Design the sequence.
């Protein structure tokens, strides 16, 4: 009987195993390594490289190298290579194909079936995208298993009885914390929280930004515009992070990082563990609920029908609940009205993780969410002399109130309350106010939150950009040149202009 393999399809590295003699056994790849970099690249001739081969040439060929694609699973996202639009499912299937081939070489038999793990908070679209990737790779995906459940099974916890366990999983690109309950051979995920845009990659980015800023101050040279230098710094930043896990300081040394008329420039920066903690402090802060609704019952003295109570309790920064406050009829009526089925046009269902504020009260509708930096298809009227295409854009925060939309830019991948906001570097935006112009997209009457976000994002991105808002550039230099530069290069964050606001200012 052919073996079924288990696959941990990771953001930065992937791993596979099979079950033998009552234990899980790791399958080594063709490079005799237990993990395979989740990286796909294409050389100048269009030849596909996967895993270690792709990682080795990443610094020399960054524009044709794709990493951390797991973060985009289930999203409307594509990577353009040689004029072809590659979906996250297709790119992930290339990684899975290599894993399948390597497993067959290791096991000396054909592999057709697999179980693949995903973060516990992955939604249905992300889970389906993972299954699709397996199917494209020629694998029958028997099950999609939550990563914390797989971890518990790997440790043999299914044989335990009557206990609750916390699984803390900080990976290369995703993070989740799950509370699982074990009993009678059954493992159940009780609660989960996390972020699919937080992981080791973000720690690497924080270090590399510090290195880039330090070099810029010392030499007056912005290496962000040099893709090869940027890739070398990212690689060195990852190595520095690893070294600082066992020592208090390390030296980032990159000779010949740049060359000008005066000759080659070397980069040498000492990084301490204390400094790294300062650089990553922002990522270590977790947003917490400010209040909870508590429902409970109290038996009456005559043991008749129990009395039901509902109260509102504040939550402090340590997660501790304060004294209960009786819930008013006005509050309950407002809550009920927000979720009544007769109110068409109000989004419903599970709130996406990128939603920062959600107020669906009738007459007060207000929604705020964000997109991390990504590539976007943009359309332009002829007068701007910009050809339609795909462009790199910074992180974007959307604010929708009734039928109006504001938009802001931010630096980084995940905004916090203290995050600085910048003028959105796009046409048709005055300050933050979006001129939707010729957008004629029909709003669905019934939609969940994901569909709601998609509708409003399409109204912005699929409209033709035609003019400057307020007849002035939202960027430090000409917006046309900034936009054209972002067509084939990372967005130049030095062009952003501060709006004078922070995220907390628009959340209140």
Sequence:
């Amino acid at each position: 009987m052919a073996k079924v393999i288990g696959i941990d399809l990771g953001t930065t590295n992937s791993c596979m195993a099979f079950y033998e003699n009552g234990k899980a056994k790791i399958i080594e790849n063709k490079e005799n390594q237990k993990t395979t970099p989740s990286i796909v690249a294409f050389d100048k001739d269009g030849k596909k490289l996967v895993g270690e081969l792709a990682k080795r040439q990443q610094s020399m060929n960054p524009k044709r190298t794709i990493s951390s694609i797991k973060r985009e699973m289930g999203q409307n996202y594509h990577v353009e290579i040689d004029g072809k639009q590659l979906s996250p499912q297709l790119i992930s299937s290339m990684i899975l194909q290599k894993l399948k081939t390597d497993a067959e070489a290791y096991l000396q038999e054909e592999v057709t079936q697999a179980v693949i793990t995903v973060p516990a908070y992955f939604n249905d679209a992300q889970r389906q995208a993972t299954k699709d990737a397996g199917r494209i790779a020629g694998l029958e995906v028997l099950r999609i298993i939550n990563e914390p459940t797989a971890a518990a099974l790997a440790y043999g916890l299914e044989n335990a009885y009557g206990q609750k366990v916390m699984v803390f999983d900080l990976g290369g690109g995703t993070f989740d914390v799950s509370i699982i309950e074990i009993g009678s051979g059954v493992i159940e995920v009780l609660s989960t929280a996390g972020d699919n845009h937080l992981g080791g990659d973000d720690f690497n980015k924080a270090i590399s930004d510090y290195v880039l800023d330090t070099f810029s101050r010392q030499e007056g040279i912005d290496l962000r515009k040099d893709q090869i230098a940027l890739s070398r710094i990212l690689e060195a930043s990852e190595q520095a992070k690893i070294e600082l896990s066992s020592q208090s300081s390390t030296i980032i040394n990159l000779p010949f990082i740049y060359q000008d008329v005066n000759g080659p420039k070397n980069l040498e920066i000492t990084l301490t563990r204390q400094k790294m903690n300062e650089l990553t402090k922002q990522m270590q802060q977790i947003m917490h609920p400010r209040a909870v609704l508590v429902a409970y019952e109290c038996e009456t003295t005559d043991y008749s029908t129990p009395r039901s109570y509902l109260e509102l309790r504040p939550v402090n920064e340590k997660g501790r609940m304060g004294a209960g406050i009786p819930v008013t009829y006005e509050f309950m009526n407002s809550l009920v009205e927000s979720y009544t089925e007769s109110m068409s046009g109000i989004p419903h269902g599970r709130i996406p993780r990128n939603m920062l504020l959600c107020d669906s009260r009738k007459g007060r509708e207000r929604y705020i969410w964000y997109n991390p930096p990504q590539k976007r298809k943009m359309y332009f009227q002829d007068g701007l002399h910009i050809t339609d295409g795909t462009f790199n854009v910074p992180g974007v925060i959307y604010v929708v109130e009734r039928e109006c939309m504001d938009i802001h830019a931010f630096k980084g991948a995940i905004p916090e309350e203290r995050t600085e906001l910048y003028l959105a570097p796009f046409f048709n935006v005055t300050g933050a106010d979006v001129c939707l112009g010729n957008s004629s997209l029909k709003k669905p009457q019934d939609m969940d939150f994901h569909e709601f976000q998609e509708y409003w994002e399409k109204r912005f991105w699929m409209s033709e950009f035609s003019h400057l808002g307020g007849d002035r550039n939202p960027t430090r230099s000409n917006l046309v040149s900034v936009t054209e530069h972002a067509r084939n290069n990372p967005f130049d964050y030095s062009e952003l202009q501060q709006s004078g606001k922070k995220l907390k200012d628009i959340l209140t």
Notes: Residues 88-107 form the longest helix (20 residues). The chain has three domains: 5-157, 200-284, 345-507.
